[in-house]
Write a structure and sequence with these properties.
Blueprint (H helix, E strand, L loop, with lengths): L1 E10 L9 E8 L12 E11 L8 E7 L8 E3 L10 E5 L12 E8 L5 E4 L3 E3 L7 E11 L4 E11 L5 E4 L15 E4 L20
Antiparallel strand pairs: 1-2, 1-3, 3-4, 5-6, 6-9, 7-8, 7-10, 10-11, 12-13
Length: about 210
């Protein structure tokens, strides 16, 4: 029967080498043992089993990666206003995304407004969905490690204006006028605002 189980954890990514774990068991024909890893990183796990008369098995070896450290937050790259084309939300990877004792970043998750987190794969850009209308919208992005841990999110607001300004000509009336300033032109834009108004009279030169 099984007398003892020896478990050696050998670090493969720069961690300190922990002492081996030796577990002496009551005589048994079958044993299932758990392994306590001292920290994040890649570990070579060697397991040897001794029986009651001193026979020792060959080592059963596995390489196991442990990641307990969520990735740092990425950095959103937004401008003040987007339009008229659908805006592309972009971000930079976390500064500490490469580490010898973590699994690295394998995915990003994006949240717009009150929606759910949506995966973007390993892409660091996302075109704003057609269902998102004009106005200011909350945006958050976070990195997900290859071990499945979600990190902190970078948050900001994106402002989108895909609608043209509304223009109206005031009542000019019929007949001759003695005042050259006889017309009234107004415009309004509820999102990014009016930058300029241009007009022409009888296909003449454009005036601002």
């Amino acid at each position: 029967g099984i007398k003892s189980v020896r478990i050696d954890l050998i670090p493969l990514s720069g961690q300190s080498d922990p002492p081996p774990s030796v577990r002496v068991l009551a005589p048994t024909t079958q044993s299932s043992e758990s392994v306590d890893f001292p920290g994040s990183g890649l570990w070579n796990v060697d397991v040897r089993v001794s029986d009651a008369i001193g026979n020792v098995s060959d080592a059963a070896t596995k390489v196991i990666g442990i990641d307990t450290d969520p990735p740092a937050k990425p950095n959103l790259e937004l401008v003040e206003w987007y339009g008229p084309e659908r805006p592309t939300i972009r971000w930079h990877p976390p500064a500490s995304s490469i580490s010898p004792i973590t699994s690295g970043v394998c995915d990003y998750e994006l949240r717009v407004g009150h929606g759910s987190w949506a995966t973007t794969g390993n892409q660091r850009a996302h075109i704003l969905d057609e269902s998102t209308g004009d106005g200011s919208h909350y945006v958050a992005v976070r990195a997900v490690s290859c071990g499945g841990l979600s990190g902190a999110s970078d948050e900001d607001y994106i402002a989108y204006d895909g609608s043209s300004p509304q223009i109206s000509a005031g009542s000019i009336g019929e007949g001759w006028k003695t005042d050259g300033d006889a017309g009234l032109l107004t415009a309004q834009d509820q999102e990014s605002g009016i930058e300029s108004i241009s007009y022409s009279v009888d296909s003449g030169p454009e005036q601002t």
